[in-house]
Design goal:
Blueprint lengths: L1 H15 L7 E4 L8 E13 L8 E10 L3 E8 L7 E6 L4 E4 L2 E5 L17 E4 L8 E7 L3 E7 L4 E5 L6 H12 L6
Antiparallel strand pairs: 1-2, 2-3, 2-11, 3-4, 4-5, 5-6, 6-7, 7-8, 8-9, 9-10, 10-11
C-alpha cells in the first residue's frame, strides 16, 4: 500500500512542477499555419553626442517576435513606456518599418562588423527622403536587432546587450553611422 502512495505522490509532484522558461517561446495563434516565436533579451541604450557621455543610459527588455514573414522588435523601457520602441523587419522585402517610415537596406558593399557585439554583419538601413531632419542610417541585423540609430539633429543611440565603459567601441559605432553615405 505504501508503494502505491509513494508512486502517486511522485507522479503528483512531477506533474505539478512548473516547466522551466526558455528564451524561445511558442506563441499560440488562431491561424495554425502561422507559427510565431518570441525571444527575450536585455539591451542598454546609450544616448550619444560627440562627448560620449556614458551616464545617459536607458535599460530595455527586448522581445523579438518571429511571425513567419515579419520580425517584430519591441524595446520595452524598464523605466517609462514613453521610451518604448517598436521596429518591424519584413523578411520578403528586406525593409525596416520604424515610426511608420520605411527604411531600405543601403549600399550593399558596406557593412559593420564587430565580434564583441555579434557574429553577423550589420546592414545600414536608409530612408529615401530629401529632408535633413530624418533618422538615418539605422544599423541593424535580424538576429541582433538595432545596434545604432543616427540622428542628424539630436542624440544618436547605440543599443548593446550589456553596459560598457568601452568608449572606443561606442565611438567606433557612432563614427561608422556618421560617415555612412548611400548611393541615393
Amino acid at each position: 500500500m505504501s508503494i502505491k502512495i509513494n508512486i502517486i505522490l511522485i507522479c503528483f509532484f512531477l506533474c505539478s512542477c512548473k516547466q522551466k522558461k526558455s528564451d524561445k517561446i511558442k506563441i499560440s495563434n488562431s491561424d495554425e499555419s502561422v507559427k510565431a516565436y518570441e525571444r527575450k533579451e536585455e539591451r542598454v541604450s546609450y544616448a550619444l553626442t560627440n562627448e560620449l557621455p556614458l551616464n545617459k543610459l536607458k535599460f530595455y527588455k527586448l522581445s523579438i517576435i518571429d511571425t513567419g514573414s515579419i520580425y517584430k522588435y519591441h524595446y520595452k523601457s524598464l523605466k517609462d513606456s514613453i521610451y518604448d520602441l517598436i521596429i518591424s523587419y519584413n523578411k520578403a522585402s528586406n525593409q525596416l518599418i520604424f515610426y511608420h517610415d520605411i527604411y531600405y537596406e543601403g549600399n550593399l558593399d558596406l557593412r559593420y562588423k564587430n565580434q564583441l557585439i555579434s557574429e553577423k554583419n550589420f546592414s545600414f538601413y536608409w530612408i529615401n527622403s530629401g529632408k535633413s531632419d530624418v533618422t538615418r542610417p539605422i544599423l541593424f541585423n535580424k538576429d541582433y536587432g538595432v545596434l545604432g540609430i543616427y540622428n542628424d539633429y539630436g542624440s544618436d543611440f547605440v543599443f548593446l546587450k550589456e553596459k560598457t565603459e568601452n568608449k572606443k567601441l561606442l565611438k567606433d559605432i557612432l563614427l561608422t553611422m556618421e560617415n555612412y553615405r548611400t548611393n541615393e
